[in-house]
Amino acid sequence: MVLYRFLALAAAGTAVTAKISVQVHRNLEVAKQSNIRVKFHCGEALASHRRRLKAGASRTETIESVVHSLKEHTRTSQALVKLLLANQVESTAVETIALYLSANKGASYDEVYTALAKNVDTNTLTLPNNTCGEKMPNAQYPNNIYGYGRLNIFKAVTAPLPKCALWTDDFEVIGEEVKKVSQSTAADCCDECHNTPNCNAFTFTRDNGGTCWLKAENKSVNWVYKKGSKSARVLKPNNDLTSCGTLEEDVTYGGPTVTVTYPAKAESCYADCENTPGCKLFVWYGGTCTLKSDKGDRVIVDGAKAGSLPTSSACAPMELNVNYVGHNIGYTSQTSADACCGDCQATSGCNLFVWFRGMCTLKSAMGTNETVDGAKASFLLAGQAS
Question: CA nearest 34: which of 64, 3, 72?
Answer without folding.
Answer: 72
